[in-house]
Design brief:
heterodimer; A: about 55 residues; alpha+beta; 3-stranded antiparallel β-sheet; about 20% helix; globular; B: about 375 residues; mainly beta; 6-stranded antiparallel β-sheet; about 5% helix
Amino acid sequence: MTYKLYNDTEFGSLSGVIQTLDNGVKKFIPINEENTDYQEYLKWVAEGNTAEAAD
Amino acid sequence: MALTLHGTVADNTAVLSRPNAKPLIINGDMQVAQRGTSFSASTSEIYTLDRFKYIDIDSTDNVYTITQDAEVPSGQGFAKSLKVDVATADASLDSLDGTLIEQRIEAQNLQQLNFGNSSAKSLTLAFWVKSNKTGIYVVRLLQSDNSSKQVSYAYTISSANTWEKKIINIPGDTAGVITNDNGSGLQISWLLSAGAGLQSGALRSAWTAYANGDVAVGQVNLADSTDNEWYLTGVQLEVGDFDANSIPPFQHESFADSLIRCQRYLYDPLRGSASFGALALGVCLSTTICRTVISAPAEMRTRPTIVTSGNLEVAGDNFSPAVTATAVSARTGTQAMEVQFTVGSGLTSGEGAIVRRDNNDTAQFRLDAEL
């Protein structure tokens, strides 16, 4: 499982985080603290991990 | 206008005084299964039938197969159940290892309970359950808004392979406010297994600060044999105190009503479609980019995660290149999502196009706003 930041394709600002699972499923996670996938990402970051930078 | 009542006075009183027009439990009859009807529960958490989540508390060494099943209690009006079948036995649980099936109820749907003041209302949980493995099982309720205060109750499966209706009375919590928001207000958990560390305390019939040892005292280990299976259906949560005689009947909703309530938490735009099933309509901005808007049928609980797998294509007038990349706009909301699909080449700028499955019936594209 990996995380990679991604930018808004129109305005270039940070749009969210892409989580790629081992089975190839991709999750486009919005930056929204009410979203449980984003909450999980924040926990992962709090454990000392860093997502791959956006392209 | 005359009102004709049927059944006992107590039955009618309970139904007429029901304060909630819709059931607090969503998909309690297990009819809706947007993610599929069979799941290998080998990871720590997965959603199975809509609104029902499997959780492995401490590890990933329990493996169950969870399915939507046609086995139901006779004569109760149910057509589906949730079945848990042990695929890999675990007869020696780690201390804090536990597995459970859970529904999380959105907090703003629970404000009628008045938790946090002297008029806090009690609840009654009822459900049908069946297993070949008899013995004591535990249902635990937890408030995530209040430092995970919990109550836990034992119920006994007395007869093997026989549907039994269980009714559990839960007191109101005069001290724990359920925040009026779109987060989790109550988590209702049916334990399947629990290690010694989850059984070392006491069952709590009053709301008590979370302690591992109080979670599942007495719980049998369903996972101890691949012969074991456990079924659940007809889950209802009523406001007030009821017993086997007074509990109101299960509120059967139409499939469409139940589905749209589930779609607040998960929406599958490709549901029911086959090969080349349409996902979205958009406009081509260049030879490689098609931008679309996907609308949800119900306002989603929060801005959703978009979950994708498999092959899609962008189809227009004489072109249908495969999608090579997907991007979701930061301006996505709870009702409409702006999604951009990229292809290698071949689009015609300015033309409309359909994004659809690329000659397959397996590509997925789901909007997930679960609790």
